[in-house]
């Protein structure tokens, strides 16, 4: 690492250092939980749980940040690989647990054309490709960046399964995380996008979007895993234990997440 990169990393670590304040849990949370997690924290706190300081982002980015020394105590990933890689590298206390199984959905603003059916959830992408080829305009198709976002990987797999990955290249716009991808999907120039089902169900989006689920078999399972980092404090441990309980699962179900026992081998 050269001097410039070392200086940039040092400045970044100083900037996020307040995450590790005593008396509160410092948590890195996948963007697919951006609307569900505040409710989880509210319920946890109502039962006497300690304060929680949350950062939302792409799981792959959090994996790199933690490996570089970011002072998070608990990591809720949108996939398994990010947590397991940190465990293999010695950053977590254990391999953690699967706390939920996510789903992928197509979302679009009402009036952007026919909503795809359950059996052909990517027909809107096909229509956007046809419109572009006919020279009638470019309707964007949004997804999270597959380089570091698990829901972006799932979106790419679904498009590849449908034979649309290459043809959709001129139309694709990628969010840094799945929450940003959802905003791109509802922009004026977009036909729609492939995002977490949990975001499609969020009250703040439900009023301005319609959605259809992508069949679970169209992409690799979205087994969402969490783990405590080495040296995690009591506050983070209390939250970790509470998130494994039934009260947390009830909230997660309301946002479209399947329970952990839906994951094979858990």
TrEMBL record:
<keyword id="KW-0732">Signal</keyword>
<dbReference type="Pfam" id="PF13531">
    <property type="entry name" value="SBP_bac_11"/>
</dbReference>
<keyword id="KW-0479">Metal-binding</keyword>
<protein>
    <submittedName>
        <fullName>Molybdate ABC transporter substrate-binding protein</fullName>
    </submittedName>
</protein>
<dbReference type="InterPro" id="IPR005950">
    <property type="entry name" value="ModA"/>
</dbReference>
<comment type="similarity">
    <text>Belongs to the bacterial solute-binding protein ModA family.</text>
</comment>
<feature type="signal peptide">
    <location>
        <begin position="1"/>
        <end position="22"/>
    </location>
</feature>
<dbReference type="InterPro" id="IPR050682">
    <property type="entry name" value="ModA/WtpA"/>
</dbReference>
């Amino acid at each position: 690492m050269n001097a410039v990169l070392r200086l940039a990393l040092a400045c970044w670590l100083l900037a996020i250092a307040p995450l590790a304040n005593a008396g509160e849990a410092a948590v890195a949370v996948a963007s697919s939980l951006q609307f569900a997690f505040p409710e989880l924290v509210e319920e946890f706190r109502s039962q006497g749980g300690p304060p929680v300081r949350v950062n939302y982002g792409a799981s792959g980015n959090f994996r790199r940040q933690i490996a570089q020394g970011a002072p998070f105590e608990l990591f809720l990933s949108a996939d398994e690989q990010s947590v397991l890689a940190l465990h293999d590298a010695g950053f977590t206390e254990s391999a953690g647990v699967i706390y939920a199984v996510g789903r992928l959905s197509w979302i679009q603003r009402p009036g952007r054309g026919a909503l795809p059916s359950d059996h052909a959830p990517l027909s809107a992408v096909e229509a956007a490709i046809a419109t572009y080829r006919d020279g009638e305009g470019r309707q964007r198709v949004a997804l999270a960046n597959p380089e570091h976002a698990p829901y972006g990987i799932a979106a790419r797999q679904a498009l590849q399964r449908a034979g649309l990955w290459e043809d959709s290249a001129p139309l694709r716009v990628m969010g840094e995380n799945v929450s940003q991808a959802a905003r791109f999907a509802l922009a004026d120039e977009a036909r729609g996008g492939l995002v977490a089902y949990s975001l499609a169900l969020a009250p703040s989006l439900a009023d301005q979007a319609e959605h259809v689920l992508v069949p679970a078999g169209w992409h690799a399972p979205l087994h969402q895993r969490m783990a405590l980092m080495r040296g995690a404090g009591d506050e983070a441990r209390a939250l970790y234990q509470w998130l494994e309980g039934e009260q947390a699962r009830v909230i997660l179900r309301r946002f479209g997440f399947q329970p952990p026992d839906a994951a094979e081998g858990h």
